[in-house]
């Protein structure tokens, strides 16, 4: 995944920055983009693998919602050897992502079947699930539809099943939020992004990626019915939560 082309999508000055879309151009540079943009991305993938090994139930389905190129699917699949009757359904509504994801998964051998479907996750039936992963996807769903989606995920999970939810978030404290945003920008600078790239990317995602506070996420998960919720990873304004049914 690290050997992808370098992300230079926002490197040149744009007269008008359009809303960010997961199109073919993004597909080509996505592994580089996400590794240089999300602090702890590789650690989160590793943790998703570990948690999947623990919580996957025999003869159940595992979901990767907003799978992009299948990084979380691969992390989960590598940890499912010996889990009988488990299959993975990975879903994304970007046709370009889905096409490349299918090719990518073919490059790895596994006994766990993985199907990649091109659909809006809000339309996907979730059933007999033991692990549902949303690795930086909920943030792209309109805020007023997030509760309903979480509710559907909860209903599709078996007792003891888990939701693995990773999100960029904002702090409830305005001053400390600025600190977190600043540390994240420093991280991007250290990874070779220029001020122009950072500010143009920020403008591009502003309207399509609305972030909530961790308090809001925790409250929603509780309201959906999850009996236990735990943050298991955090770096600056990026966090991963484990919610158990
Ligand atoms: C930041 S990427 C996710 C990264 C990926 N999960 C990983 O671990 O590498 C967000 C993905 O969610 C997808 N997405 C956004 N809204 C969606 C929706 N309503 N239904 C399905 N996929 C969606 C985008 O196409 C994109 O591929
Ligand atoms: O680049 C940023 O500032 C991000 O917020 C990163 C982020 C994410 O959080 O999912 C945003 C969009 C995608 O390109 C990949 C990563």
UniProtKB/TrEMBL annotation:
One MF annotation (Gene Ontology) recorded for this entry: S-adenosyl-L-methionine binding
Origin: domain of life: Bacteria
UniProt cross-references to InterPro entries, sorted A to Z: CmoA, Methyltransf_25, SAM-dependent_MTases_sf
Described purpose of this protein according to its UniProt entry: Catalyzes the conversion of S-adenosyl-L-methionine (SAM) to carboxy-S-adenosyl-L-methionine (Cx-SAM).
Reaction(s) the record says it catalyses: prephenate + S-adenosyl-L-methionine = carboxy-S-adenosyl-L-methionine + 3-phenylpyruvate + H2O
UniProt keyword terms in alphabetical order: S-adenosyl-L-methionine, Transferase
EC numbers on record: 2.1.3.-
Name of the molecule in the record: Carboxy-S-adenosyl-L-methionine synthase
UniProt keyword S-adenosyl-L-methionine, yes or no: yes
Residues the entry annotates as binding S-adenosyl-L-methionine: 41, 66-68, 92-93, 120-121, 135, 202
Description of how the protein assembles with itself and partners: Homodimer.
Residue ranges of every copy of the Methyltransferase domain listed in the record: 62-161
PANTHER family in alphabetical order: CARBOXY-S-ADENOSYL-L-METHIONINE SYNTHASE, TRANS-ACONITATE 2-METHYLTRANSFERASE-RELATED
GO biological process: tRNA wobble uridine modification
Principal EC category: transferase
